[in-house]
Amino acid sequence: MSDSLLQVKGLSVGIEDGQILHDVDLTINAGETHVLMGPNGAGKSTLGNAIMGNPVYQVLDGQILFNGEDITKLTTDKRARAGMFMSFQNPLEVPGISLESFIRNGMRQVSEKQMKLLQFKKKLEETMKLLEMDPVYAERDLNVGFSGGEKKKAEILQMLMLSPKFAILDETDSGLDVDAVRTVSKGIEEYQKQTDGALLIITHNAKILEALKVDYTHILVRGSLVQTGGPELIEEISRNGFEKFIEEAAK
Amino acid sequence: MNDAVKDSAVHYDPPIDTSTDDINAYLEGTNRSLYNFRDEGTDYYKVDEGLTREIVDQISKEKNDPEWMHEFRLKSLEIYNQMRVPDWGPPIDGLNMDNIVTYVRPKTDMKASWEDVPEEIKSTFDKLGIPQAEHKYLAGVGAQYDSELVYHHLQDFVAEHGVIYSDLESAMRGEYAQMIQDYFMKLVPPTDHKFAALHGAVWSGGSFVYVPKGVKVDIPLQSYFRLNAKGAGQFEHTLIIVEEDADLHFIEGCSAPKWNVANLHAGCVELYVKKNARLRYSTIENWSKNMYNLNTKRAIVEEGGRMEWVSGSFGSHVSYLYPTTILKGKGADCEYTGITFSGKGQDLDTGCRMVHIGEETSSLVTTKSLSKDGGIGTFRSAVEIRPSARRSKSSVDCQSLMLDDISRSDTIPEMDVCTEDCDIGHEAKIGSISDEAVFYLMSRGISEDEARAMIVSGFANPISKELPLEYAAEMNNLIKLEMEGSLA
Q1: Is A187 part of a structural domain of the chain?
Q2: Strand pairing class (B324-327; B296-301)
Q3: Is ipTM strictly over 0.85?
Q4: Chain B touched by A66 (CB under 8 Å)
Q5: Contacts of B397 in chain A (CB under 8 A)
Q6: Residue A59 φ then ψ, to 5°
Q7: Mutation target vs B (from A71, A76, A90; most B CBs, 10 A cutoff)
Q8: Are the Cβ atoms of B440 and A88 closer than 8 angstroms?
Q9: Rounded to two decimals, what is the model's pTM?
């Protein structure tokens, strides 16, 4: 048994319309930050969703191990309780539940120790400040009427409050302006520092990665991982795009 | 709508056959034990089953009616016999008037202190939390058990201002006798429909509230109606008159234990809101699922007056319930906020009707409807803008949430607009719980059942927050119970 935090082994995933991921292998250790890049439609979000257990995506073959346990068939809530988290590309609006009570409810589920209300309030306030969020958002219904930027910040806020062992950030930077990208990036950095948490950052854009320590970069093309390298790959892609990888994959 | 609820086409699955006599088939399921305890032997006197002139005479005699009321009952019976059963709503074939006991007197007369109410009846209301609520936040309480009030009490500090809160029977013989005669079933005449006529013939119990000019009652009055007897009907009459510039919040609660035969509720509520007065009427209806709830509620609002309805319908096998508001005076205003939850074996047809007569009148309707386990929820609204109602406004917004694909939800809005000089809006949405939203909540460690319950109570939240605190809590509990029932 290895001591890797997350192991994806030979994972093939499909939806009703057909197969998306082919035989993907990925290993992430505690404290590591991995970046997943690739052209549109390559299956990046599918990989994130499959790891998190979205029932829309069916595992056709392969395994997902977390902390050495096979979680391939576990429901999403149990994965979250085991220490997994995903920041959604399009966080959903849920009326009637305030952001604050949603976070508190989530914390009750994922952590064994209960935080006292005052302590919780204080931590929430501080974290919102770090993310430059107006405290009134805590009282507002979850994501309802939030701007794109506030929704993404609310996702990072949840990550920092729930402090998972491993977080998937699915295009957290998409649709954000420069300042918001910087703020969100600051939040991610805080997560790396605070919890020695592992990350899988799915992105198109190198901007969000500038201030972050990155250990590995993976390139996904047409559902297959075609290359893995260090942070220098990010720069290469920023310069030359994915063309080279797409051509290679076509061979 | 929103992300938690995805819009979808209206389902037209064949409705369950609710016309059968065997309601038993629908009674299994949700744990409603909170309301379901029953008392096997508290009735002291009851009339025979069915509806005849002899029975009506007997009720009238039993109640010591004044002569005009005796005649009114007999006239109503005649109308009842001539009218047809409504053929446009949920089937009520399972209701056979020959089997319904229309009058059941509990073995006590009305008391003004809970201490004096017989223990077995008092314990029912204790379990429902009525004396506790009275103690905490009510200005007065009336409690009806089967056909008669067993308790009625108004706090002194409210009575001092001349507010009257009593049972209708004693009001009919006391100082307000003429007023009762002038107002009783004038807003809802027995000719209105068959069950209004039935009510006119056999009505018993209910409350009379009179708030004098300028008096503002800042904490609510509450009447609670409990139907305990098997195979019985409850026909309480609520008559409320809020004089000029006065203000009242009235709460009505109802429940019944579950029996394996049909029970009937055909109450009648008549509300008079005078010039610049305000009345808020809140209801949580939680009849057991063998109940036919054929209730009629109507308000008339004079110049500058305001009527607010808050209505939660959870119980009953079949409901026909459409509170009507007649906006008569200039600038009269009505807000209707309602929620209906139809579960297994329930066919709940609810909604409201707004009749705009005065100039610059306005109505605002917000409703939510939930259906699950094959339940049928129908929302009917009727907005009438008469030619005289120039510069009036009306807005209707109804949202329905179907919790599975065997349930059904229909929206039937009707508008009859007779002047161009008005502003009318209508919005209706029917949807189901979005799987994506469930996944989102689950990704934070919340179980699937809880995620669904959260989405449902979030959907209901805008309505539940309009209810008095204790009732909002009760409603959330009911939703939770219903959700557990469906997901277990």
Answers
A1: yes
A2: parallel
A3: yes
A4: no
A5: none
A6: -80, 120
A7: A76
A8: yes
A9: 0.82
